[in-house]
Amino acid sequence: MKRDSVPSGSPYEQAIGFRRAVRLGGSIAVSGTAPVWPDGHVDPDPRAQARRCWEIAIEALAGLGGTKADVIRTRQYVVDAADADAVGRVHGEVFGDVLPASTMVVVAGLLDPRWKVEVELDAVVD
């Protein structure tokens, strides 16, 4: 099977040894995606962060030939349970017509203290 990947542009990518997304055959996995804008800005609003995360993740998915309709599983990591509703609503806006299996987990922290949410997804393409 052919293996392909999309880089993240993260300064950690080479040192840690990962890619934003990897495709092997018809399976695509998008790694932990944080809410960072190209200029390094992080909006403090959890809804804006969730939207940005999904925008980046879906763009990586598209870079490997996938679409939102191919998504079969999502994971959302939040640092504050109080943000779960806002983050979950964004997930519903993005995936309400797809309805992937999904998990949301409250975690003690993420790599950058400005991040309130980080996401992952898995997809299968024909």
In terms of topology, how is this protein built?
Blueprint: E1 3-6, H1 13-17, E2 21-24, E3 27-33, H2 46-63, E4 71-78, H3 84-95, E5 101-106, E6 117-124
Parallel strand pairs: 4-5
Antiparallel strand pairs: 1-2, 2-3, 3-6, 4-6
Helix pairs in contact: 2-3
Structure write-up:
With 126 residues, the protein is an alpha+beta fold. The chain has a single domain, classed as RutC-like (60s Ribosomal Protein L30, Chain: A, 2-Layer Sandwich), CATH 3.30.1330.40. It contains three helices and six strands. A six-stranded mixed beta sheet has the order 1-2-3-6-4-5, covered by helices on one side. It starts with a strand and ends with a strand. This is RidA family protein. Pfam families: Ribonuc_L-PSP.
Task: Provide a quick synopsis of the model.
With 126 residues, this protein is an alpha+beta fold. Helix content is 28%, strand content 29%.
Helix content: 25-40%
Structural class based on helices, strands and sheet pairing: alpha+beta
Q: Can you identify the CATH class?
A: Alpha Beta
Question: What series of H and E elements makes up the topology?
Answer: EHEEHEHEE
Q: What portion of residues belong to β-strands? A: 25-35%
InterPro entries: RutC-like_sf (IPR035959), YjgF/YER057c/UK114 (IPR006175)
Protein name: RidA family protein
Pfam family, one: Ribonuc_L-PSP
